Automatic annotation (TrEMBL):
Classification lineage: Bacteria, Pseudomonadati, Chlamydiota, Chlamydiia, Parachlamydiales
Domain (CMP/dCMP-type deaminase): residue spans on this chain: 5-127
Pathway(s) this gene product operates in, as recorded in its UniProt entry: Cofactor biosynthesis; riboflavin biosynthesis; 5-amino-6-(D-ribitylamino)uracil from GTP: step 3/4; Cofactor biosynthesis; riboflavin biosynthesis; 5-amino-6-(D-ribitylamino)uracil from GTP: step 2/4
UniProt keyword annotation of Oxidoreductase present: yes
Co-factor remark: Binds 1 zinc ion.
Domain of life the protein comes from: Bacteria
Protein name: Riboflavin biosynthesis protein RibD
One BP annotation, GO: riboflavin biosynthetic process
Enzyme Commission no: 3.5.4.26, 1.1.1.193
Protein family per UniProt: In the N-terminal section; belongs to the cytidine and deoxycytidylate deaminase family.
UniProt: NADP(+) binding residues: 158, 174, 200, 204, 228, 302-308
Catalyses which reaction(s): 5-amino-6-(5-phospho-D-ribitylamino)uracil + NADP(+) = 5-amino-6-(5-phospho-D-ribosylamino)uracil + NADPH + H(+); 2,5-diamino-6-hydroxy-4-(5-phosphoribosylamino)-pyrimidine + H2O + H(+) = 5-amino-6-(5-phospho-D-ribosylamino)uracil + NH4(+)
Protein backbone atom coordinates (compact mmCIF):
# COMPACT_ATOMS: atom_id res chain seq x y z
CA UNK A 1 0.00 0.00 0.00
CA UNK A 2 1.31 3.45 -0.96
CA UNK A 3 2.03 6.05 1.73
CA UNK A 4 -0.78 8.25 0.43
CA UNK A 5 -3.23 5.35 0.75
CA UNK A 6 -2.03 4.59 4.28
CA UNK A 7 -2.47 8.23 5.33
CA UNK A 8 -5.93 8.29 3.75
CA UNK A 9 -6.95 5.11 5.61
CA UNK A 10 -5.96 6.58 8.97
CA UNK A 11 -7.77 9.84 8.18
CA UNK A 12 -10.92 7.88 7.42
CA UNK A 13 -10.61 6.42 10.94
CA UNK A 14 -10.46 9.97 12.31
CA UNK A 15 -13.52 10.93 10.25
CA UNK A 16 -15.39 7.93 11.70
CA UNK A 17 -14.52 9.24 15.17
CA UNK A 18 -15.86 12.69 14.26
CA UNK A 19 -19.36 11.30 13.65
CA UNK A 20 -19.51 10.36 17.34
CA UNK A 21 -19.38 14.07 18.20
CA UNK A 22 -21.97 15.23 15.67
CA UNK A 23 -24.88 15.48 18.11
CA UNK A 24 -23.18 17.07 21.11
CA UNK A 25 -20.17 19.13 19.92
CA UNK A 26 -21.92 22.30 18.62
CA UNK A 27 -21.32 25.21 18.86
CA UNK A 28 -17.84 23.68 18.42
CA UNK A 29 -17.03 21.65 15.30
CA UNK A 30 -17.42 17.87 15.52
CA UNK A 31 -13.85 16.67 15.10
CA UNK A 32 -12.22 13.23 15.15
CA UNK A 33 -8.59 12.32 15.78
CA UNK A 34 -6.40 9.20 15.77
CA UNK A 35 -2.77 8.77 16.81
CA UNK A 36 -0.60 6.29 14.92
CA UNK A 37 2.74 4.69 15.72
CA UNK A 38 4.48 1.93 13.74
CA UNK A 39 1.45 1.80 11.41
CA UNK A 40 -0.90 1.03 14.32
CA UNK A 41 -3.56 3.21 15.94
CA UNK A 42 -2.57 3.79 19.56
CA UNK A 43 -5.13 6.47 20.44
CA UNK A 44 -8.52 7.74 19.37
CA UNK A 45 -10.69 10.69 20.35
CA UNK A 46 -13.53 12.98 19.35
CA UNK A 47 -14.79 16.36 20.54
CA UNK A 48 -16.73 16.37 23.81
CA UNK A 49 -19.53 18.88 24.59
CA UNK A 50 -18.69 22.59 24.73
CA UNK A 51 -16.27 23.43 27.52
CA UNK A 52 -14.83 19.93 27.60
CA UNK A 53 -11.84 18.36 25.85
CA UNK A 54 -11.37 18.53 22.09
CA UNK A 55 -10.69 15.51 19.88
CA UNK A 56 -6.89 15.91 19.94
CA UNK A 57 -6.77 16.02 23.74
CA UNK A 58 -8.91 12.91 24.08
CA UNK A 59 -6.78 11.05 21.53
CA UNK A 60 -3.58 12.05 23.35
CA UNK A 61 -5.04 10.83 26.64
CA UNK A 62 -5.94 7.56 24.95
CA UNK A 63 -2.38 7.12 23.62
CA UNK A 64 -0.81 8.25 26.90
CA UNK A 65 3.02 8.25 26.93
CA UNK A 66 3.11 6.26 23.68
CA UNK A 67 2.22 9.45 21.81
CA UNK A 68 5.86 10.60 21.80
CA UNK A 69 7.26 10.21 18.29
CA UNK A 70 3.86 9.29 16.83
CA UNK A 71 1.75 10.77 14.02
CA UNK A 72 -1.57 12.49 14.62
CA UNK A 73 -4.45 12.52 12.12
CA UNK A 74 -7.19 15.09 12.71
CA UNK A 75 -10.20 16.11 10.61
CA UNK A 76 -9.88 19.86 11.30
CA UNK A 77 -6.95 22.15 12.05
CA UNK A 78 -6.03 22.12 15.77
CA UNK A 79 -6.91 25.30 17.64
CA UNK A 80 -4.14 27.60 18.86
CA UNK A 81 -6.19 30.01 20.97
CA UNK A 82 -7.47 30.01 24.53
CA UNK A 83 -11.25 29.53 24.67
CA UNK A 84 -13.14 27.45 27.21
CA UNK A 85 -10.22 25.01 26.94
CA UNK A 86 -6.45 25.52 26.38
CA UNK A 87 -5.01 25.37 22.84
CA UNK A 88 -4.75 21.89 21.35
CA UNK A 89 -1.50 22.86 19.62
CA UNK A 90 0.25 23.22 22.98
CA UNK A 91 -0.81 19.73 24.04
CA UNK A 92 0.32 18.24 20.71
CA UNK A 93 3.74 19.91 21.05
CA UNK A 94 4.17 18.80 24.68
CA UNK A 95 3.27 15.21 23.79
CA UNK A 96 6.19 14.99 21.34
CA UNK A 97 4.12 14.29 18.22
CA UNK A 98 6.37 14.23 15.12
CA UNK A 99 3.83 14.45 12.30
CA UNK A 100 0.38 16.01 12.07
CA UNK A 101 -1.96 15.27 9.17
CA UNK A 102 -4.90 17.68 8.85
CA UNK A 103 -7.88 17.11 6.56
CA UNK A 104 -9.18 20.70 6.56
CA UNK A 105 -8.03 24.15 7.59
CA UNK A 106 -10.36 25.77 10.11
CA UNK A 107 -12.12 28.87 8.66
CA UNK A 108 -12.89 30.18 12.16
CA UNK A 109 -11.36 33.67 12.49
CA UNK A 110 -9.59 32.61 15.70
CA UNK A 111 -7.72 29.83 13.90
CA UNK A 112 -7.37 30.22 10.09
CA UNK A 113 -3.96 28.64 9.65
CA UNK A 114 -2.53 29.79 12.98
CA UNK A 115 -2.76 26.30 14.46
CA UNK A 116 -0.79 24.84 11.56
CA UNK A 117 1.76 27.62 11.81
CA UNK A 118 2.28 27.03 15.56
CA UNK A 119 2.93 23.34 14.98
CA UNK A 120 5.39 24.00 12.16
CA UNK A 121 7.22 26.60 14.25
CA UNK A 122 7.65 23.88 16.89
CA UNK A 123 9.39 21.66 14.32
CA UNK A 124 6.43 19.35 13.69
CA UNK A 125 5.87 18.14 10.12
CA UNK A 126 2.35 19.17 9.06
CA UNK A 127 0.55 18.05 5.90
CA UNK A 128 -2.88 19.44 5.00
CA UNK A 129 -5.54 18.00 2.67
CA UNK A 130 -5.51 14.26 3.31
CA UNK A 131 -9.13 13.05 3.30
CA UNK A 132 -10.30 16.59 2.53
CA UNK A 133 -13.25 15.52 0.38
CA UNK A 134 -14.65 13.09 2.96
CA UNK A 135 -14.08 15.48 5.88
CA UNK A 136 -15.93 18.27 4.05
CA UNK A 137 -19.02 16.08 3.76
CA UNK A 138 -19.11 15.64 7.53
CA UNK A 139 -18.27 19.24 8.43
CA UNK A 140 -20.23 21.06 5.69
CA UNK A 141 -22.64 22.88 8.08
CA UNK A 142 -19.78 24.06 10.31
CA UNK A 143 -17.59 25.22 7.42
CA UNK A 144 -20.49 27.10 5.83
CA UNK A 145 -21.51 28.81 9.07
CA UNK A 146 -17.99 29.98 9.86
CA UNK A 147 -17.34 31.25 6.32
CA UNK A 148 -20.71 32.95 5.71
CA UNK A 149 -21.64 34.01 9.27
CA UNK A 150 -25.14 32.57 8.82
CA UNK A 151 -26.32 29.08 9.81
CA UNK A 152 -26.40 26.20 7.36
CA UNK A 153 -30.11 25.85 6.59
CA UNK A 154 -32.01 22.64 5.93
CA UNK A 155 -35.59 23.04 4.74
CA UNK A 156 -37.50 19.92 5.77
CA UNK A 157 -40.79 19.40 4.00
CA UNK A 158 -43.34 16.59 3.90
CA UNK A 159 -45.34 16.47 0.68
CA UNK A 160 -47.85 14.40 -1.17
CA UNK A 161 -46.91 12.80 -4.49
CA UNK A 162 -48.39 15.84 -6.24
CA UNK A 163 -46.16 18.20 -4.26
CA UNK A 164 -48.62 19.58 -1.70
CA UNK A 165 -47.58 20.26 1.89
CA UNK A 166 -51.12 20.38 3.29
CA UNK A 167 -54.74 19.97 2.25
CA UNK A 168 -56.88 22.98 1.40
CA UNK A 169 -58.07 23.18 5.04
CA UNK A 170 -54.46 23.37 6.26
CA UNK A 171 -54.25 19.83 7.69
CA UNK A 172 -50.92 18.06 7.15
CA UNK A 173 -50.69 15.33 9.81
CA UNK A 174 -49.68 12.87 8.59
CA UNK A 175 -48.41 12.90 5.02
CA UNK A 176 -45.63 10.34 5.52
CA UNK A 177 -45.01 7.05 7.30
CA UNK A 178 -44.04 6.71 10.96
CA UNK A 179 -40.56 5.54 9.90
CA UNK A 180 -40.06 8.73 7.88
CA UNK A 181 -41.23 10.86 10.81
CA UNK A 182 -38.72 9.10 13.07
CA UNK A 183 -35.96 9.98 10.61
CA UNK A 184 -37.10 13.60 10.78
CA UNK A 185 -36.32 13.56 14.51
CA UNK A 186 -32.75 12.64 13.64
CA UNK A 187 -32.59 15.73 11.45
CA UNK A 188 -33.78 17.80 14.41
CA UNK A 189 -31.04 16.27 16.56
CA UNK A 190 -28.39 17.34 14.04
CA UNK A 191 -29.65 20.94 14.25
CA UNK A 192 -29.23 23.49 17.01
CA UNK A 193 -32.46 25.28 16.13
CA UNK A 194 -35.83 24.26 14.69
CA UNK A 195 -37.71 27.10 13.00
CA UNK A 196 -41.38 27.52 12.09
CA UNK A 197 -43.67 30.35 11.03
CA UNK A 198 -46.81 31.61 12.75
CA UNK A 199 -49.16 29.66 10.47
CA UNK A 200 -47.61 26.30 11.34
CA UNK A 201 -47.48 27.23 15.02
CA UNK A 202 -51.18 28.12 15.11
CA UNK A 203 -52.54 25.25 13.03
CA UNK A 204 -50.31 22.36 14.18
CA UNK A 205 -49.35 23.48 17.72
CA UNK A 206 -46.10 21.48 17.37
CA UNK A 207 -43.76 20.40 20.13
CA UNK A 208 -40.61 20.66 17.95
CA UNK A 209 -38.46 18.47 20.19
CA UNK A 210 -36.27 15.47 19.40
CA UNK A 211 -38.17 12.32 20.33
CA UNK A 212 -36.13 9.37 19.09
CA UNK A 213 -35.69 6.08 20.99
CA UNK A 214 -31.92 5.85 20.39
CA UNK A 215 -30.95 9.54 20.75
CA UNK A 216 -30.23 11.13 24.10
CA UNK A 217 -29.22 14.78 23.78
CA UNK A 218 -27.47 16.97 26.34
CA UNK A 219 -29.96 19.66 25.39
CA UNK A 220 -32.86 20.00 22.99
CA UNK A 221 -32.53 22.27 19.93
CA UNK A 222 -33.84 25.79 20.45
CA UNK A 223 -37.34 26.26 19.08
CA UNK A 224 -37.68 29.44 17.05
CA UNK A 225 -40.94 31.05 16.04
CA UNK A 226 -40.95 33.62 13.24
CA UNK A 227 -44.02 35.81 13.83
CA UNK A 228 -43.87 39.32 12.42
CA UNK A 229 -47.23 40.60 13.68
CA UNK A 230 -48.00 38.62 16.85
CA UNK A 231 -50.51 36.16 15.41
CA UNK A 232 -49.43 33.21 17.58
CA UNK A 233 -51.07 32.86 21.01
CA UNK A 234 -48.74 32.05 23.90
CA UNK A 235 -50.24 28.61 24.47
CA UNK A 236 -49.55 25.00 23.66
CA UNK A 237 -46.46 22.80 23.65
CA UNK A 238 -44.35 25.33 21.77
CA UNK A 239 -44.44 27.61 24.81
CA UNK A 240 -43.79 24.90 27.38
CA UNK A 241 -40.24 25.79 28.41
CA UNK A 242 -39.85 22.51 30.31
CA UNK A 243 -39.70 20.76 26.94
CA UNK A 244 -37.14 23.07 25.28
CA UNK A 245 -36.26 26.78 25.10
CA UNK A 246 -38.33 28.98 22.80
CA UNK A 247 -37.21 32.12 20.99
CA UNK A 248 -39.70 34.39 19.20
CA UNK A 249 -38.37 36.65 16.44
CA UNK A 250 -40.84 39.41 15.69
CA UNK A 251 -41.13 43.03 14.55
CA UNK A 252 -42.60 46.24 15.97
CA UNK A 253 -45.89 45.25 14.32
CA UNK A 254 -46.59 42.77 17.14
CA UNK A 255 -48.32 44.32 20.10
CA UNK A 256 -46.61 44.82 23.46
CA UNK A 257 -49.47 42.82 24.98
CA UNK A 258 -48.68 39.81 22.81
CA UNK A 259 -44.95 40.15 23.43
CA UNK A 260 -45.58 40.17 27.19
CA UNK A 261 -47.73 37.05 26.86
CA UNK A 262 -44.85 35.27 25.16
CA UNK A 263 -42.39 36.49 27.78
CA UNK A 264 -44.59 35.28 30.67
CA UNK A 265 -44.21 31.70 29.42
CA UNK A 266 -40.43 31.99 29.79
CA UNK A 267 -39.83 32.41 26.07
CA UNK A 268 -37.26 34.88 24.82
CA UNK A 269 -38.54 37.60 22.49
CA UNK A 270 -36.37 39.64 20.13
CA UNK A 271 -37.71 42.46 17.97
CA UNK A 272 -35.79 42.88 14.74
CA UNK A 273 -36.29 44.93 11.59
CA UNK A 274 -39.05 44.28 9.08
CA UNK A 275 -38.87 44.03 5.31
CA UNK A 276 -40.85 46.35 3.03
CA UNK A 277 -43.79 43.93 3.10
CA UNK A 278 -43.77 43.88 6.91
CA UNK A 279 -42.25 40.42 7.39
CA UNK A 280 -39.35 39.59 9.71
CA UNK A 281 -36.03 40.40 8.04
CA UNK A 282 -34.86 36.81 7.64
CA UNK A 283 -31.28 37.63 6.69
CA UNK A 284 -30.90 39.71 9.85
CA UNK A 285 -32.54 36.90 11.84
CA UNK A 286 -30.12 34.33 10.43
CA UNK A 287 -27.12 36.53 11.25
CA UNK A 288 -28.41 36.78 14.81
CA UNK A 289 -28.68 32.99 15.08
CA UNK A 290 -25.12 32.52 13.83
CA UNK A 291 -23.82 34.96 16.46
CA UNK A 292 -25.53 32.78 19.06
CA UNK A 293 -23.49 29.77 17.96
CA UNK A 294 -26.18 28.04 15.93
CA UNK A 295 -24.45 26.08 13.18
CA UNK A 296 -27.41 24.35 11.54
CA UNK A 297 -31.04 25.42 11.34
CA UNK A 298 -33.88 23.05 10.47
CA UNK A 299 -36.90 24.83 9.02
CA UNK A 300 -40.18 22.92 9.34
CA UNK A 301 -42.74 25.29 7.84
CA UNK A 302 -44.91 26.79 6.74
CA UNK A 303 -45.34 27.59 3.10
CA UNK A 304 -44.88 31.38 3.43
CA UNK A 305 -41.66 31.06 5.43
CA UNK A 306 -40.31 28.30 3.17
CA UNK A 307 -40.95 30.33 0.03
CA UNK A 308 -39.36 33.45 1.51
CA UNK A 309 -36.21 31.59 2.50
CA UNK A 310 -35.92 29.97 -0.92
CA UNK A 311 -36.51 33.26 -2.70
CA UNK A 312 -33.75 35.15 -0.87
CA UNK A 313 -31.27 32.28 -1.11
CA UNK A 314 -30.95 31.25 2.54
CA UNK A 315 -31.61 27.53 1.98
CA UNK A 316 -28.65 25.17 1.57
CA UNK A 317 -30.45 21.84 1.54
CA UNK A 318 -34.03 20.94 0.65
CA UNK A 319 -34.98 17.72 2.44
CA UNK A 320 -38.26 16.45 0.97
CA UNK A 321 -40.21 13.56 2.48
CA UNK A 322 -42.86 12.25 0.08
CA UNK A 323 -45.84 10.25 1.27
CA UNK A 324 -48.05 7.94 -0.85
CA UNK A 325 -51.10 10.16 -1.29
CA UNK A 326 -52.63 12.71 -3.65
CA UNK A 327 -54.12 15.96 -2.32
CA UNK A 328 -55.09 17.86 -5.45
CA UNK A 329 -54.41 21.29 -6.89
CA UNK A 330 -56.12 23.20 -4.06
CA UNK A 331 -53.61 21.92 -1.52
CA UNK A 332 -50.78 24.16 -0.29
CA UNK A 333 -47.79 24.10 -2.65
CA UNK A 334 -44.20 23.54 -1.54
CA UNK A 335 -43.06 26.78 -3.19
CA UNK A 336 -45.66 29.51 -3.72
CA UNK A 337 -43.76 31.92 -5.96
CA UNK A 338 -44.83 32.01 -9.61
CA UNK A 339 -42.01 31.03 -11.98
CA UNK A 340 -42.97 32.10 -15.53
CA UNK A 341 -40.59 29.91 -17.51
CA UNK A 342 -38.45 26.81 -17.09
CA UNK A 343 -35.37 28.90 -17.76
CA UNK A 344 -35.94 30.67 -14.43
CA UNK A 345 -36.62 27.51 -12.42
CA UNK A 346 -34.45 26.85 -9.37
CA UNK A 347 -31.80 24.25 -10.13
CA UNK A 348 -31.26 21.53 -7.51
CA UNK A 349 -28.74 18.74 -7.13
CA UNK A 350 -29.70 15.38 -5.61
CA UNK A 351 -27.42 14.58 -2.69
CA UNK A 352 -29.14 11.63 -1.07
CA UNK A 353 -32.18 9.32 -1.43
CA UNK A 354 -33.63 7.09 1.31
CA UNK A 355 -36.77 4.97 1.52
CA UNK A 356 -38.79 4.54 4.72
CA UNK A 357 -41.53 1.93 4.42
CA UNK A 358 -44.09 3.54 2.09
CA UNK A 359 -42.42 6.98 2.04
CA UNK A 360 -39.09 8.30 0.83
CA UNK A 361 -36.76 11.23 1.39
CA UNK A 362 -34.70 13.11 -1.18
CA UNK A 363 -32.09 15.68 -0.15
CA UNK A 364 -31.41 18.39 -2.72
CA UNK A 365 -28.54 20.86 -2.57
CA UNK A 366 -29.16 24.47 -3.60
CA UNK A 367 -26.65 27.03 -4.77
CA UNK A 368 -26.60 29.92 -2.31
Amino acid sequence: MKNSEIHHTFMLEAIAESWKARLHAPPNPWVGCVIVKDQKIIGKGYTYPSGQAHAEINALKSASENAKGASLYVTLEPCSHHGKTPPCTEAIIRAGILNVYVALKDPDSRVRGQGIQKLREAGIHVKVGIGEKEAKVVLTPYLYQRESQIPYTVLKIATSVDGRTAAVDGTSQWLTSSEARLDAHLQRAYSQAVVIGSGTATIDSPQLTVRHPTIHLFQQPQRILIDSSGKTPATGLLFDQKLAPTLVLTTKASSITRQNEWLKTGAEVIVISATKNGHVNLREAWQLLAKRGIIQVLVEGGSTLQSALLEIGLVNCLSVYTGPLLIGKSGLPLFSKEIPTLKKAKLLKIQNIKQFDNSFRVDYLLKV
